[in-house]
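Exercise: predict the fold of this chain.
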Amino acid sequence: MIKLNKRKIRDHSEARNKVARSVAANIIKAQHIWATWMNRQSQRCPPKLRSALMIIFLMAMAAVSFSMIVGGFDRNPRVIADAGAIKMPKVTQHQKSGVTDSATDGALKRIKRVRRYLDSLAATKDGKIKLDNIISLRPGLQDSIKLVEQLYKNR
């Protein structure tokens, strides 16, 4: 029996291939335009100057690489802030009583000490530089300290 209502299966892969080919062709065209422009710019410069610039660039990159390698073997790494790790309190349900947990008090004292240290850094010029470095390396540190301090106090 002949099927009258045959469904045609549409294949979108041809359309996708056509789009991909046109995108790739445009990228290659842009690369070719860039390469010809750069070639024209470099042809204006005399060959001796080009080689001298290349040697200077390579020497500078070698010096930077050497200093990075030697710096990696340094035995005394820089310490930005030696305040210790801040731990979140364990959530436990216990009866309210007049007895306080000494571990919680010790952690709360450490948190306050870290907060005071960061606040005291802002008093001097060198301290402000250190504080800016700490904040740039750990952007949410001050908010985390406040949050953990509130958690310990509300406990």
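Check your answer against the key: The CA atoms of residues 45 and 84 lie 57 Å apart.
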